Amino acid sequence: MRIGVIGEGIMRGVYRGERDNRLCLEVAESGVSEPPPSAPLTVVIGHPRPIVLKRVIRDLASLAIESIVVFRADLSEASYLRSSMWDTPRQFLIDGAMQGGTTRLPCLDRCASLEEAMSGLTRDAKCLRLELERYAGPTRSYRLASLPSDLQRAALFVGPERGFSDRERGLLADVDVVTLGPVVLRTEAAVIAGATALADRIRST
Fold first, then answer.
1. Which of 22, 98, 123, 158 is packed most tightly, with the most Cβ within 10 A?
2. What pLDDT score was predicted for residue 60?
3. Tell me, what DSSP letter sits at residue 33?
4. Which residues contact 36 (CB under 8 A, 6 or more apart)?
5. Contact 156/39 with Cβ under 8 angstroms?
6. How far apart are CA 34 and CA 7, in angstroms?
């Protein structure tokens, strides 16, 4: 089986049973490999229901992206930031990394507002706002599949289950709007689909 140490290499080992209620593994001394580098992508998401966020964090971690920022959106429930899921968020990251076959965990931050989430982004990131429904606002919008091929680093903004408020759209007025086509997606489906496409595009440059 493949064995990894968080933040370190990946190696091969053999399960040798249990001893004193512990699993015994025999690890090969050679053949240690480095996990693939994390894609320089930050996903900024308005706090959805905690049960949804657990799945989103796990699935984003499996994509080996750089960071996840969860913020209290205007249309999020205030109590979400105090959910018990925040007692053990690292476990969701580990579960996702295991699924993705990587030992690199994304950074995970929790912010009280969109303004706070935006203030922590690196200036060289290409910022994109993913709209879950067909968007007809004043900002230029285009399909995610038509992104430029030379994308180096990106930040993807996704609203909560009720969407962005008008105030938040004002804060993101200079951010390009991207869509995933004419269908209306659930928040968690849109987050994973958008992040997967962006991570793949960045890695291919």
1. 158
2. 97
3. B
4. 64, 102
5. no
6. 10
More confident residue, 120 or 146: 120
pLDDT of residue 93: 97
Return d(Cα 181, Cα 158) in angstroms, integer. Answer: 15
State the pLDDT at residue 17. Answer: 86
For the whole prediction, is pTM greater than 0.70? yes
How much of the chain exceeds pLDDT 70, in percent?
95
Q: What is the chain's alpha carbon radius of gyration, rounded to the nearest angstrom? A: 19
Helix (H) or strand (E) holding 114: helix 114-119
CA distance 193 to 163: 17
> What is the domain partition of the chain in residue ranges?
1-34, 35-203
Express the helix, strand and coil content of the chain in percent, nearest 5 each.
30, 30, 40
CATH superfamily ID and name for 35-203: SPOUT methyltransferase, trefoil knot domain (3.40.1280.10)
Among 155, 141, 158, residue whose Cα is nearest residue 202: 155
How far apart (Å, rounded) are the C-alpha atoms in residues 60 and 63?
A: 5
Per-residue pLDDT tens digits for 55-87: 999 999 999 999 999 999 999 999 999 999 999
Residue 114 has pLDDT above 90, yes or no: yes
Nearest to 58, CA basis, from 139, 50, 156:
50
